[in-house]
Amino acid sequence: MGEAIGTAGRTAPIGRDGRAVGGAALGSVCLGFFMVLLDGSALNVALPSLSSEFGGSLAQLEWTVNAYTVAMAACLLGGGALADRVGARRLFLVSLLFFVGASAACAASPGMGALIAARAVQGVAAGGLLPASLAVIAQMYAEPAARARAFTVWGGISSLALVVGPVAGGALTAAVGWRAIFLINVPIGLLSALACRRWVPVSPVRRTPLDLLGQSATAALVGCGVGALIEAGAAGWTAPATIALCAATPVAALGFVAAARVSPHPVLPPETFRRPGFAAALAVGALYQFGAYGGQFAISLHLQRSWGLDAFRAGLAFVPFAACWSLASFVLARAVHRTGLRPLLATGAATAAAGSLALLPLGATPDWLVFTAGSCLLGLGAGLMGPSLPTVALRALPAERSGLASGSLNAFRQIGGAVAVGLFGPMLVGARADGLRTCLGLVTVGFLAVTWVILRSVR
């Protein structure tokens, strides 16, 4: 059956507990993770303002972005497993409240060091909230079609947050200051928490031990690997910090592999990679975020450093990009129910690659025709892909492992974004047009690789 008649004569999906699930339940979850993802992209356009107020090196500026991204990526796998173990709704609420507190600390930061530390706490909270949000949705809907529609909404909202971030961040920075980017999270987060307690049903639990050794190895591997890229770009490959991080990365990788072999319940079980489509979903997620988030990061810095735009005008410049992304996410991506995942994802990846390729002629002087055409194609292609990525990962694992599937996908996505920021930041020093072109060339290659993986492995 899977559907029940609502009070207004329309059908409402039935949850796994047998009760009808209203739109308020889905909306309360979406509001929380929209805030978390919005926060990640909104700060990009405020980096010059941070530099003006606090000073700081290039590496410090990058760490205001990457402390959040790396901490989130390091905790997503453990967060997914924890969501299955303690209940996705409970983890979502606890993580949301921690995120609100960390946001207030970011807004009150007296210097770069305090801001970076508070951003890391935000990332830890987001590492629990993101996989819990998708697991909550997976567990709320018993009927496959209703669940697929909810996943599309989740993916569309997450894509929307990525593109609204620069516009909202630019407007808030210009009108109030960069601290407003964090202060606005407080009322939004509290509203989401209250609505979730009221509307979202209690999630089931899966009593399995946590792989603390594997989680620690994951955090070390992600932190050292991305940290090495950031320090290498800022201080060079021969700097002591870079050498230390490069040496620690393979050690952490060996620790992760060893933990997976000895733990009875590893944070990322090796057998999951033998399930059809799971490894491909993770690869596509990482490459997608590398291109979408990395391209946005590079273009945002170029608009301000090379073209001389302030934060507000740089945010406005992203409006056509955001509009095309939103159109693709909320309108065109619905075609997945008719065409299937593979054609939609492949078309999106190829369109995004064409968009980043079209942006290559951009130089030190503004060229709005090239920028608008290329960014619209990039937004259109990325928007087509975003809503369908969760479905690829979640359908590869059993429903009771939805937390693991969600955590794994989001971890690989965030790692892809962090690697892009670590690689692209040093290339954009001095407002060099060739640096932007190198970044966009890598984005193009990334989306072409996505196209190849999709055509080869996704069904």
TrEMBL record:
<feature type="transmembrane region" description="Helical">
    <location>
        <begin position="150"/>
        <end position="174"/>
    </location>
</feature>
<feature type="transmembrane region" description="Helical">
    <location>
        <begin position="63"/>
        <end position="83"/>
    </location>
</feature>
<feature type="transmembrane region" description="Helical">
    <location>
        <begin position="344"/>
        <end position="362"/>
    </location>
</feature>
<keyword id="KW-0812">Transmembrane</keyword>
<feature type="transmembrane region" description="Helical">
    <location>
        <begin position="180"/>
        <end position="200"/>
    </location>
</feature>
<keyword id="KW-0813">Transport</keyword>
<feature type="domain" description="Major facilitator superfamily (MFS) profile">
    <location>
        <begin position="25"/>
        <end position="458"/>
    </location>
</feature>
<dbReference type="InterPro" id="IPR036259">
    <property type="entry name" value="MFS_trans_sf"/>
</dbReference>
<protein>
    <submittedName>
        <fullName>MFS transporter</fullName>
    </submittedName>
</protein>
<feature type="transmembrane region" description="Helical">
    <location>
        <begin position="368"/>
        <end position="390"/>
    </location>
</feature>
<keyword id="KW-0472">Membrane</keyword>
<dbReference type="Pfam" id="PF07690">
    <property type="entry name" value="MFS_1"/>
</dbReference>
<feature type="transmembrane region" description="Helical">
    <location>
        <begin position="212"/>
        <end position="230"/>
    </location>
</feature>
<feature type="transmembrane region" description="Helical">
    <location>
        <begin position="278"/>
        <end position="299"/>
    </location>
</feature>
<feature type="transmembrane region" description="Helical">
    <location>
        <begin position="411"/>
        <end position="429"/>
    </location>
</feature>
<feature type="transmembrane region" description="Helical">
    <location>
        <begin position="116"/>
        <end position="138"/>
    </location>
</feature>
<feature type="transmembrane region" description="Helical">
    <location>
        <begin position="311"/>
        <end position="332"/>
    </location>
</feature>
<keyword id="KW-0046">Antibiotic resistance</keyword>
<feature type="transmembrane region" description="Helical">
    <location>
        <begin position="435"/>
        <end position="455"/>
    </location>
</feature>
<dbReference type="InterPro" id="IPR020846">
    <property type="entry name" value="MFS_dom"/>
</dbReference>
<keyword id="KW-1133">Transmembrane helix</keyword>
<feature type="transmembrane region" description="Helical">
    <location>
        <begin position="90"/>
        <end position="110"/>
    </location>
</feature>
<dbReference type="InterPro" id="IPR011701">
    <property type="entry name" value="MFS"/>
</dbReference>
<feature type="transmembrane region" description="Helical">
    <location>
        <begin position="236"/>
        <end position="257"/>
    </location>
</feature>
<feature type="transmembrane region" description="Helical">
    <location>
        <begin position="20"/>
        <end position="43"/>
    </location>
</feature>
